[in-house]
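Dear H.,

Thanks for agreeing to be a second pair of eyes. The structure we're designing against is below in token form, covering all 112 positions.
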């Protein structure tokens, strides 16, 4: 509802993206054998939200996308997306978090 009232607000759309990501995992967390399912569904949904380009300048959109890529062990892609998120973030605490994640995936990317 808020996204409908404020369709131009990047933070509202970013929050919606995160909520949809979590919602997408609610029903698809485990298969019939109780094993965790991959995060491709969440990645598809977040990519769909970003397809308009409206979230391109919103660092949390990129941070959420990078985190999914990291969890999928797609380190090189995650590294590039974390770099994008870091370039957009203005909060010192958020930047520190993103630098730590970026260092983590950069190390994973060199080990692949």
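And this is the sequence the design step returned. I haven't edited it by hand at all.
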């Amino acid at each position: 509802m808020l996204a409908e009232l404020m369709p131009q607000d990047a933070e509202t759309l970013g929050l919606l993206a995160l909520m949809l990501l979590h919602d997408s995992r609610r029903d698809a967390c485990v298969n019939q054998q109780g094993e965790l399912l991959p995060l491709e569904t969440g990645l598809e949904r977040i990519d769909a939200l970003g397809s308009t380009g409206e979230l391109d300048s919103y660092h949390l959109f990129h941070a959420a996308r990078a985190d999914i890529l990291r969890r999928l062990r797609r380190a090189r892609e995650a590294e590039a997306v974390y770099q994008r998120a870091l370039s957009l973030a203005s909060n010192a605490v958020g930047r520190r978090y993103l630098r730590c994640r970026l260092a983590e995936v950069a190390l994973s990317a060199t080990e692949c």
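Two observations from my side: DSSP finds six helices and no strands in the chain. The CA atoms of residues 17 and 107 lie 28 Å apart.

Warmly,
E.
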